[in-house]
Amino acid sequence: MKFDVTVIGSGPGGYVAAIRAAQLGLKTAIIERYNTLGGTCLNVGCIPSKALLDSSEHYHNAHEKFSQHGILLSNLQVDMPQMIRRKNEVVDQTVKGLDFLMKKNKIEVFRGHGAFLGPNRIQITAADGAVTEIETDKTIIATGSKPITPPAFNYDKKRVITSTEALNIEQVPSRMVIIGGGVIGLELGSVFGRLGAKIDVVEFLDRIIPTMDGDCSKELMRSLKKVNMNFHLRHAVTSVKATDTGVEVEVQKRDSEEKFTIEADYCLVAIGRRPYTDGLGLDKAGVQLDDKGRVLVNDHLETNVPGIYAIGDVIRGAMLAHKAEEEGVLVAETIAGQKPHIDYNLIPGVVYTWPEVAAVGRTEEQLKEEGIPYKSGKFPFKALGRARASTDVDGMVKVLSHKDTDEILGVHIVGPRAADMIAEAVALMEFRASAEDAARMSHAHPTYTEAFKEAALAATANRAIHV
Length: 467
What we know:
The protein is built from 14 helices and 22 strands. The chain is an alpha/beta fold.
């Protein structure tokens, strides 16, 4: 069998690349080693975690806020097995939708582990050991990433877990330790914190979500402390020991000999992810990796081997599903002879806690480091009528614009529906709008997006109206 394009991996980057290639008239195949399509994101990442985040937020609101609305409940309980079942149903519906899309677009699906035999030959080994070989003109590597699990943490998938296992805990733990104050740890920590677990987050750096704007870090930590989350910043985990009933996590203060031990039901390791290229046969194809194990690509996302491309978590850049999707489209269109483009500065980042955190463009720290003159405008959600009506008053919107040209350089939001609100900022920045452009747009009242307008006004000669 011979194909114009073969995609290895069916996560967001892979399946989108395959669909776009098929739309462009290319004979396309996709290889997936697991039983279901969708990769980490749909099966054990974005989609299931959002299902649990939503469920836990409903419980938290019922427990903490319903009485403010005049809704009185008695005997409120968490049915964790049902919460997990609903999450699984959401995942099942989503991955079945992918099966439909593959058939609709006439994409050949191969189940099994794909590995290069050469630049244009791929071997697929099915779960039962059956082997199939195909030829391909172009190949797109979209194999994603796996959690980093250092041997010292004694990862056993039972008591010392990653995000994959955390999605299937069927009893609310009394206490959980999370190693890492990044996106994954905070999202899953907030799930169990809302449900009543005591959460200890150990972060080596001096703030959580360290790659985002410093004001976002402060605002989010202030909010998460309200849902049973305790933070040990500037601390390192020196050892993790699992027992039949729990874990003992030894923590040491950075630049100090001071140590203490936390006993908990689970230890969630969330210190990042590594590119997943295991058993891919890259050496047989001649594909080069960088010193971090990522596939080396040029500006067109093509490797050193002509005709072999790579996208998503296996290459440089943020490990984000929507970043991988944009790259999948770029490669498919490049193969078809088009000239697509991605502005990586305008790929938004989101933390799906509550309040949510969303950002695009430069942080204030980056602007200072790069010596770019800027203006800053902030607006707190507590000053917004819509936020007070829904009792979602935590957080703020921050707009950074160029001091001389007023062009919007970065937008940072901590607040309700921040993940949806950030799209407005992305659209404006795509067209290189100024803060005054945003400030002069009419925003429906009452809405959360009025906070963005007010922050833009604040960045434009401190003109915010409602604060």
